[in-house]
Amino acid sequence: MDDGDARMKARVTVMLKDGVLDPQGEAIRHALGTLGFQGVAGVRQGKVIELDLDEGASEDKVAEMCERLLANTVIESYRVEMV
Predict the structure, then answer these.
(1) Domain count, the chain
(2) Which residues form the domain of 22?
(3) Per the count of CB atoms within 10 A, which of 7, 19, 38, 77 is most buried?
(4) How far is CA 16 from the centre of its chain?
């Protein structure tokens, strides 16, 4: 990559949809209580994916990546942020 090459970043946040059982989130909630952190009623666990993209990449293209690979859209939702 040249120093002259322009790059963009996209941040994709993938979370389980509301109503989908989140056993990892429940395990985290339980562990927090065990460690003395009271008052945590629920935890949803997800993932963040950062993409380095060529200049000109669009949010629509990243959304297509999510639909085809990055998220299981049956049980997960995603949010794309171009940064």
Answers:
(1) 2
(2) 18-46
(3) 77
(4) 9
DSSP 10: E
Half-sphere exposure of 4 (CA within 13 A, CB side): 0
Residue 78 burial (C-beta neighbours within 10 Å; 0-12, 13-18, 19+): buried
Q: In what order do the strands lie in the sheet with 46-54?
A: 46-54, 7-16, 76-82
Q: What is the largest CA-CA distance in the chain?
A: 52
Residue 4 belongs to a domain: no
* 83 and 60 share one domain: yes
pTM of the model: 0.84
9 in a structural domain: no
In a domain, 80, yes or no: yes
Query: Which of residues 2 and 21 earns the better pLDDT score?
Result: 21
3 lies in some domain = no
The 10s digit of each residue's pLDDT in 18-75 is 999 999 999 999 999 999 999 999 999 999 999 999 988 999 999 999 999 999 999 9
